[in-house]
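Tutorial, part two.
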Amino acid sequence: MTFWSGKSVLVTGGAGFLGTIVVERLQRGGCKEIFVPRSKDWDLRREDVVERLFKEHKFDLVIHLAATVGGIGANRDNPAHMFYDNLMMGTLIIEKARLAGVPKVVAVGTVCSYPKFTPVPFKEEDLFKGYPEETNAPYGLAKLMYIVQSQTYRQQYGFNSVVLLMVNLYGPGDDYDPKTSHAIPALIKKCVDARDAGEKQVVVWGDGTASREFLYVDDAADGILLAAERYNRSDPVNLGAGMEINIKDLVKIIAKETGFKGKVVWDTTKPNGQPRRGLDVSKAEKEFGFKAKVGFAEGLKRSIEWYEKNKKDLKFDR
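Running the prediction step on this input gives:
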């Protein structure tokens, strides 16, 4: 952790689910300054705002986590929003960091950038071999441009930036808003709420055949910081746990762990999303020594316990 001692670090999205853990790790590492721009003060989609950010602050490193995100429903309903916000934030952060002379940027991309029918496990060299799954494509393609920008900026300017391809995260403090949540928090909420209300069924999108990979949020934070310390190339790197589970099995596990004993109804009028997701994570271990530590059963248990404890305090826009 001496790598971080005395450094000034910009963490966009530093107040979010993943960002709060990254910031906590940096504090423990002895960072001199950690700046977390809040959206109400710093609209990172605007060039003048990002330019001002780098004029008013000097950073030794930038960790770009800020994103407009959501599950299948949010992606399907807001494709232009997902594309524009994520493309502009990443493009401006990398460009203005370069112009300001920041030594390094670490940007977080997404598994959604992979082609729809990528063979499992997904390998980094398969990224540009097809079009992403339709409901995720605007978001995934916006994030894919981070890699193009990183590679071309290194080639033309010698600028040091890296892009990490992240799978779905989960863990305590996740987003449980039904309009924006991903699979695990959405399913935990459905099962716990139905159990408490005495409901006899829960409705889940799709037919349950799609598979996903999940990474515990603390592991994700560790992977990002290891890449910041040790990795200095623009070839993208997968960041995941190296596991794959289909949604039908995931629902069974969550129902059992939450004590929901009712029926699961599959709404096949709704999309499955990408058919399969599972990453080859060998490159992250080889290049900067990252390997996920928290097992899925343990991570899921912690996630459910957090929701049970905090559900009464969670507020969502209706």
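The chain has a mean pLDDT of 96. In part three we will examine how such features are distributed along the chain.
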